[in-house]
Design a protein that fits this description.
heterodimer; A: alpha+beta; Sulfite Reductase Hemoprotein, domain 2; Sulfite Reductase Hemoprotein, domain 1; Alpha-Beta Plaits; 4 domains; 5-stranded antiparallel β-sheet; 17 helices; B: alpha/beta; Rossmann fold; 6-stranded mixed β-sheet; NO2/SO3_Rdtase_4Fe4S_dom (chain A)
């Protein structure tokens, strides 16, 4: 993975120094809260319901054991012994004191991590495929391009006060595991007919109160022009994105209002000028980054056979293991969704354990997924049983990847200052209702996603089943929607009818699942059946 | 209004800045003020005779002025480029990078803090209008 050189270290160290001074000026009163707010946000610090929340970037979801151990240390020393992995492949700590934030930032810098631009109206952490570099179906590793973006976007002088936040995702597989088309810019690495590497560029996707799947803006962008083209995309947005209404300020609104073709035309016009400015790093810089993502030295003799004699192990292998590109190897997803737990939460002790396993069995690499799980990307199959035993003993071997209890949920009203309703208890009740693994496996792939407010951090628009918590005359109320997808068949879920109480929505989900089981054709997922038969049979079962 | 802050050796321009509309409607003005929603590219035919462009920052959160400044510098504008309005210590380093070389803040600036902000970062990740070599170029010596 990417290692900082002296330049990278120097930049992060300067950021710590700068933020320390800004915090001092805030504490002395030299900065008003209004002036301080965007500064702390651009360093990942939010003021939540009970305390400051600190969001730390995990660039494109890749981490080393040393980095995860540092997060465990931060959890123990500055927080309450746990952290929360987010849908943006980041980690959040919920109980931080402002005066400690610069020290935590310095701790992060010591392991080549930071919280730069994890919030604020700027370019956020670039996300990617959690199986990058390991997936059997990828064309190339997308992470070197994401790292190139990280450096270009860090402290970008022109794009630090955009109309609104800006999120970019980069993938390199036909299967989209990163919800790429639900980002402000989604990039898919492809080859053209001549075999040259380049990008399909999608602009204007997003969730929030106006969910949109990003339209294609450019069919093929040559690799050498990656940065200058994105600069043009951002400049058009910075100049013409709406600033009169923060709810209409995301780039998706601009692209929607002027149309994808007109936006693309403006970008081309701007790019014709911008690409002459020398913004694109030379190929050698890309190579310098790319070699650091070279595949680890996997054992070419690693045996492909696996002893599946232990039935519990077998279930876990069936559910949580996916194919690695190298023979005798596998990709392991560590579920952070135990039945009744808080989706994405991980204790300091669990982090230490996972760090040990990554170091010993996964070439010192870990990934965070946008579905709030962790991944050991490079595991020899012969080590799977040992890993499973260690995970199982720590409550980390729930075999539920992509099943109904593998729920994405935002922190909701239990923590978040923006929330209208709680998300976590709904997730817990649904997982408990479907606690039988046999039943979950019979239902099959079902992506259920819960947000506690319209900002949609829990990706409810992209859920096969989505749940949105709202405040209805002082009562928490939950709207149910079906048919969303964050994958390569991206779509926005549709609300099915009047909302429910907390218990009511759990019942409604169960009726929807039963309806699907009654109607499905062989091999169909919930999403497929819903798309085939439409809303009506589900509506009748739920409201009838 | 706070004291003006200037990073130029020439004499400050005395002519008051006129609005974009009146600038475009008269042939001899040499100083113009751009509001944050006005298009800097309308000035490109007149860069040779412009001595001062003042760009308004009605609030520090309005980042359009950064693009306006970059566009003018990229087109070769050499005159004074002034950020006026809600100009604060923590934005000045970015403004300098986009080509602003004078500042007319509404509230006085702590000059020691400005000095620290301008000298804090040892390098820059991306090229910008200030001409600083980016880190990727410096990595190759």
């Amino acid at each position: 993975m990417y290692r900082y050189d002296d330049f990278d270290h120097g930049m992060v160290a300067a950021r710590v120094d700068e933020f320390r001074e800004q915090v001092e000026r805030r504490l002395s009163g030299a900065l008003t809260e209004d002036q301080f707010k965007p500064l702390r946000l651009m360093n990942g610090l939010y003021l939540q319901l009970h305390a400051y929340m600190y969001r730390i970037a995990v660039p494109y979801g890749t981490m080393s054991a040393r980095q995860l151990r540092k997060l465990a240390h931060i959890a123990r020393t500055y927080d309450r012994g746990y952290g929360h992995f987010t849908t943006r492949q980041n980690i959040q700590f919920n109980w931080i004191e402002l005066k400690n934030a610069p020290d935590i930032m310095a701790e992060l810098a010591s392991v080549e991590m930071h919280s730069i631009q994890t919030s604020g109206n700027c370019i956020r952490n670039t996300t990617s495929d959690q199986y990058a570099g390991a997936a059997a179906d990828e064309m190339t590793d997308p992470r070197p391009w994401a790292e190139l973006l990280r450096q270009w976007s860090t402290f970008h002088p022109e794009f630090s006060y955009l109309p609104r936040k800006f999120k970019v995702a980069v993938i390199a597989s036909a299967e989209d595991r990163a919800a790429m088309r639900l980002h402000d810019i989604g990039v898919e690495i492809v080859r053209n007919e001549a075999g040259e590497l380049g990008f399909k560029v999608f602009v204007g996707g997003g969730m929030g109160r106006t969910p949109m799947v990003a339209p294609l803006i450019r069919e093929f962008l040559p690799a050498a022009n990656f940065i200058s083209y994105l600069e043009a995309c951002l400049r058009v947005y910075n100049r013409y994105g709406r600033r009169d209404n923060m709810f209409k300020a995301r780039i998706k609104i601009l692209v929607h209002e002027i149309g994808a073709a007109e936006y693309a035309r403006q970008v081309e016009e701007e790019w014709a000028h911008v690409k002459t400015l020398g913004l694109d790093p030379p190929a050698e810089e890309f190579e310098r980054i790319a070699v650091q993502f070279a595949p680890p030295p996997l054992d070419p003799e690693a045996p492909d056979e696996l002893d599946l004699g232990d039935p519990d192990f077998r279930v876990w292998v069936d559910q949580n293991i996916v194919a690695h590109k190298a023979k005798g190897h596998a990709i392991v997803t560590i579920s952070l969704k135990p039945i009744g737990g808080i989706p994405g939460d991980c204790s300091a002790d669990q982090m230490d354990l996972i760090a040990d396993l990554a170091e010993r069995y996964s070439h010192d690499e870990l990934r965070v997924t946008h579905a709030q799980n962790l991944v050991l990307p490079h595991v020899a199959k012969r080590d799977l049983y040992t890993i499973w035993q260690a995970l199982d003993a720590a409550g980390l071997a729930t075999p539920n990847l992509d099943l109904i209890s593998d729920i994405i949920a935002c922190p909701g009203l239990d923590y978040c200052a923006l929330a209208n309703a709680r998300s976590i208890p709904v997730a817990q009740k649904i997982a408990e209702r479907f606690s039988s693994l046999e039943r979950q496996r019979d239902v099959g792939e079902l992506k259920l996603k819960i947000s506690g407010c319209i900002n949609a951090c829990g990706h409810h628009h992209a859920g096969h089943i989505g749940i949105l918590g709202v405040d209805k005359k002082g009562e928490e109320n939950y709207q149910l929607s079906f048919g969303g997808s964050g994958a390569e068949d991206a779509s926005v879920a549709k609300i099915i009818g009047p909302g429910f109480s907390e218990d009511g929505v759990v019942d409604a989900v169960e009726k929807a699942v039963e309806t699907y089981q009654a109607l499905r054709d062989p091999g169909e997922r919930f999403l497929d059946t819903y798309r085939r038969v439409g809303l009506q049979p589900f509506k009748e079962a739920i409201y009838g | 209004m706070g004291d003006a802050l200037r990073f130029r050796d020439d004499e400050p321009h005395e002519e008051p800045a006129v609005t974009l509309d009146s600038f475009l409607g008269q042939s001899n003005a040499t100083a113009v003020r751009l509001e944050s929603d006005e298009d800097a590219r309308l000035l490109l035919p007149y860069l040779d005779r412009l001595a001062l462009v003042e760009v308004a920052f009605p609030t520090f959160r309005d980042g359009r002025g950064y693009s306006a400044a970059s566009i003018l510098r990229e087109a070769g504008y050499k005159g004074e480029l002034r950020a006026q309005g809600d100009v604060l210590v923590d934005q000045i380093a970015h403004m300098r990078r986009c080509g602003f070389d004078s500042f007319a803040p509404e509230a006085p600036l702590d000059m020691a803090a400005v000095e620290r902000a301008l000298t804090r970062y040892p390098a820059r990740y991306q090229p910008a209008a200030d001409g600083t070599a980016p880190i990727w170029a410096r990595r190759r010596g």
